[in-house]
Each structure stands twice: as structure tokens, then as C-alpha cells.
Amino acid sequence: MDLHLTKQIEFIREVDRLKTIFRQSYIMDKSRHENDAEHSWHITLMAWVLQTHTLDREVNLLHVMKMLLIHDLVEIDAGDTFAYDVAGQVGKFERERDAAIRIFGLLPEEQSNEMMSLWLEFEEANTSEACYAVAMDRIQPLLHNYYTQGKAWREHEVTADRVLARIQFLRDNMPGLYQMTEELIHDAVEKGYLLPASL
Question: How many domains does the chain have?
């Protein structure tokens, strides 16, 4: 094999490890934790299905889908940091940036640079595509928690105000999705899936 192809195959082999990184979210039948590869596939499909909720913004769906497919590859090295783990958030960007440099660095330079650029765009969330991608990444675990009767929320004693805070940016950018998620959060509190707002 030529060097270009050898690097691509090595990257493909390495990212198979994403299937071994488990998240705090449970799959919707509640039987086990979801892994990062399943999460990435699920939100990429969500982005396609829910694209009509981007308020007529010009969103390049292929760009969004590429971003979503690679956004958690860094967790092969950095591990999954639970969204509500305050201590775990300290140094998270630096850990994940170092992982991105190593993992994307396995590829030929042009592809490596593209993936690093996509990853940074997702992290900074300053473009329409990145905002939409981040929205999918916030909504999907919320759906998992709601449809598993708050299994992970209850295990970690997560409160409604913390969940609402993570989706606030949807209010102006994607009001239809915001309304849906807000209703699910309020219903989850009423049903005992989610603790009410902390005082």
C-alpha cells in the first residue's frame, strides 16, 4: 500500500476504539449505557431528520454531518466527560485538543487539517453549522433521559435548571426545538424523572 492509504487505514483502525467508550446515557430500552460511536451515528441521523427546524438559515448539512461524525473521536484518549460533572470540565478542552492532535494526526495532512478544523469549529460553536451540530449533541441525551424515565439523570441527581441551562441557546436559534425540549423537561419533573430546580 502507498503511504497515503496506509495512514488512512491506520486512522480507520484507531477510531474503531470509539465503540469501546461508554457514555452516562442509556440506550432507550434502558438495557445498557450508550457508546460514543452509537451516539455519533444517532446525532448525525438526527441532524438530517430535523434539518427543517433551522429557521431558514443556510446550513450545509454535509458539513454538519462531518462535524458530528468526528466530534467525539477525541474521547478515545480523553474519555467521556459527563455534561454535569463540574470537576471533570476543568481542563477538558486541553485534554481533548491533545487527543485531536494525535488522532487526526494519523491521517494524511490534508484530511488531518480538515478534521482538526471541523473539531475546533464544533467546540467554538460560532457558525450556523456548528450551532446546529451542538444542538443535536444537547438534544439527543435529553431524549435518552426522557425516554428512559430519567435513568441517568436520577443516578446523578441532575436538576431541571441544569438541563434547561444546556439548551438555552436553542431559544433564539431553533425555537421549535427549544419548545419541544422545554416541554419534555417540565414533563420529566412532573413524572419524577428529573429533580426540580435547585434552590
Answer: 1
* Nearest-angstrom CA–CA distance, 21 and 141: 15
Residue 197 lies in a domain: no
At residue 33, φ and ψ (nearest 5 deg) are -70, 150
Q: Which residues of 27-43 are buried (b: 16+ CB within 10 A; e: fewer)?
A: beeeeeebbbbbbbebb
List, as one string, the DSSP characters of 38-100. HHHHHHHHHHHHTGGGSTT----HHHHHHHHHHTTTTHHHH-PPPTT-HHHHTTHHHHHHHHH
Tell me how far apart the alpha carbons of residues 48 and 43 are, in angstroms, rounded to a whole number. Answer: 9
Higher pLDDT, 121 or 52: 121
More confident residue, 98 or 87: 98
**CATH number of the domain that residue 45 is part of:** 1.10.3210.10
Partners of residue 18 on adjacent β-strands: none
Structural domain that includes position 106:
3-191
- Chain-centroid distance of CA 138 in Å reads 6
Element holding 112 (H helix, E strand): helix 109-124
pTM of the model as a whole: 0.94
Grouping H, G, I as helix, E, B as strand and the rest as coil, residue 26 is: strand
